[in-house]
Amino acid sequence: MAEFTAAVYQNEFLPDGGTDVNAIVTVTCAGAGTAGQSGGGSAGEIIIVDTSGSMGPQTMAAAKQAAQAAIAEIVDGTWFAVVAGSDRAMLAYPQVSSGPGMIQADARTRQEASAAVGRFIGSGGTAISTWLDLAGTLFASVPEVTQRHAILLTDGENREQPGSLDEAIRRATGVFQCDCRGAGTDWQVEEIRRIAQALLGSVDIIPEPSQMQAQFQEMMRSSMARGVADAQLRVWTPQGAQVLFVRQVSPTVEDLTDRRVEVNPLTGSYPTGAWADESRDYHVAVRVAAKAIGQEQLAARVQLALGENVVTQALVKATWSNNSELTTRIDQQVAHYTGQTELASMIQEGLAAKASGDEATATTKLGRAVQLAAETGNDEATSKLKKVVDITDEREGTVRLKAAIAKADEMALDTASTKTTRIKK
Amino acid sequence: MTDAPHCPSCGAATAAGTLFCENCGFSLGAPPTGENPLPVSLQGAVAPDASTPIDDVAPISAATHATGGAVAPTAVPGRIPCRTCGGEVGPDGYCGQCGTKAPSERDHFREAPAPWVAGVCDRGIRHSRNEDAMALLASPTAGERAVLLVMDGVSNTDDSHIASLAGARAAVEVLRTPLPRGMGTPDSRIAAVTKVFTDAVSAANDAVVATAPDGTPSPPSATFVCVVVEGSTLSFANVGDSRAYWLPDGAPGVQLSVDDSVAQQMIAAGTPRHQAETSAQAHAITKWLGRDARDISPRVGELQVAGSGWVLVCSDGLWNYASEPEALAAQIRASGTTEPAALALALTDWANAQGGIDNITVTVARLDLPPAGQNAVPAAQGASDPNAETAAYPVVPQEETHG
Known about the structure:
The complex is a heterodimer.
Chain A: E1 3-10, E2 13-14, E3 20-30, E4 42-50, H1 57-72, E5 79-85, E6 89-93, E7 103-104, H2 107-118, H3 128-140, E8 145-154, H4 164-172, E9 177-183, H5 189-198, E10 203-206, H6 212-224, E11 228-236, E12 242-250, E13 254-255, E14 261-264, E15 267-275, E16 278-287, E17 296-306, E18 309-320, H7 324-327, H8 332-355, H9 359-375, H10 379-385, E19 389-393, E20 398-401, H11 407-415
Parallel strand pairs in A: 2-18, 4-5, 4-8, 8-9, 9-10
Antiparallel strand pairs in A: 1-3, 3-16, 5-6, 5-7, 11-15, 11-17, 12-13, 12-16, 14-15, 17-18, 19-20
Chain B: E1 108-114, E2 117-122, E3 132-138, E4 145-152, H1 160-174, H2 186-211, E5 221-222, E6 224-230, E7 233-239, E8 243-248, E9 254-255, H3 262-268, H4 273-277, E10 289-290, E11 299-304, E12 308-314, H5 316-319, H6 325-335, H7 340-353, E13 360-368, H8 398-401
Antiparallel strand pairs in B: 1-2, 2-13, 3-4, 4-6, 5-10, 6-7, 7-11, 8-9, 8-12, 12-13
Helix pairs in contact in B: 1-2
């Protein structure tokens, strides 16, 4: 049985008249087990592979291998399906015309699925909304599947009416989770990131076909290790208080503020998806009414809930003090993740400015990103930034855009922008 | 801080065992091994071992059955609703509505042994824990008999919060039976009452001492103040600077207790009260209970009262903000309530609103006696009328008559 714990990092002391409380809450899950084995419902996996005409022979061959590697990782008993996506979505496996659109994994079905993947032929366009919709329909065909996860691979830009992808994303939100991968450099990071963020998944670039198999294997393994099907972060705040934001800040920055679903007038629920044995950090900021010096009050109860069952809770407090030594201190964790969050937006905004030809803004933003990456010790971001800019002064954030930038490096910087590092607690 | 004996009237230092103050001639009460076992003054300190053998005999000296009622349980069943918004307090100790931290049961507790007697003992705002304690007894019949007892643990000592509560509970047990009447003469009456209070203080002291082992670097210590209401008679005793007041409706009130404090010594020496009580050493007490106490003899007194009014027994957490009887009476009027429980809470809230700089204990008893008439007992009988038949032992605090 999975066990959750929560710890809070904050400076609870506010100066006279202070109202804003910031805290990092670390939620840790242990003993998660294996997906679909907890008795609370079955796990389901759908592998969606781009089979549009843009997939070159080499990429297609690698994609087939990658999908087959992922299929091999599916644990016995897990319901699964394989979808081939082009300008429409096709159920490649199981080959049924009625009844459930998924099948339980065993040696035979895994082999049949691999064979079906081996028959993929690239043709047609790219209409990702149809892929998502088919995945949703397939999951819905097996009601006992409560933990729903998909892997989506594409190599190109979505070619649909504006808005149709967003509508499909909206339909899929809360129905299944989806990890997304882009092959090569002809796809749009921003587009695929929208899917991944809404569907509580990761996004990354696979620049070389040779790296595809390992990535797919890893994604499926991670998913199979998520023994806790679905959990929500709940944030209670006192009457009259305002939730400024709720963000996941580790392992990646995901702003959850707008994902709030009201539990009761004082409590909001935010989706966190499935959990493996892992630890995630959340940054919660709350504005409360100032109280008298010496008063203490609860600014937030941050809880993790499985269904209606609250499994762990951390208390975010506010104590008003006239001791400036206490009130001026900024919690190290809060400072670190505030920096990492800014780092993510500086990278994304800098690259967007560069794409639109605004080199001055791009230079300023990426310079600030270099500075933040150094300050917060995010070496991965620093090394990826170095492929896009020449650093004159890391501490000052003085940089020059490189004359020639590999598209893949720029996309890798973009997809990795939300990845954060941790500091010692 | 001094703990040498001093004259309660003028504050001058006195030699142990002397009967009268060398400075002003005030009677200091019986010496510990004096020839005369009966103190002549209610205001003088009586040594703990002053013996009044006659009072060991019932029924003159002590009742043989308890009439005081049970000590109200401190642990309030169920949590008190949030003090800020009235919301339900969660299992994590914070209000589920407004998030205010609910005090622990030691940090805020209430007692109301009968509808006419109530008390609130509260941490206040600035202190990290509640070292005040109280214990209350009351007969079900209003005005019949009540005991209001407050102890204030000294905050720079260890475990004072445990010591004060243990002391208050031990002392109130001694006061569960009616006070003795003595032989029917004023002297024997007061000697008997003094002995009972001395025993109560002694029991409190034993409990305080028992809290910490010998050799504790900073052993707990506490003040003591108690009023026993028996009909129209208020008997009281104190050690330290927790206070008792009689605050009649629509008439001037009196402070019954006299502080054992540097401020009181200054007042006795002529410093105006406000100046004395706001001086740097104002809160240094000159007597206390505890392992390092040298003199725990209480100052004992009695007052016959009439009409309607409030007995108020409190710690300095309240009187810091309203020391004069009139200032307290004004706050009682401002509260707009005649319900003891509501009044105790209102005064506590008011002290917190003033800053809550110390722990706050407010205990009150509502008395509705026949008004003072031809044949009735005059309220706040003055020392100028020592022969009044129905007010055999009138006592008025020193500063009221001499200050």
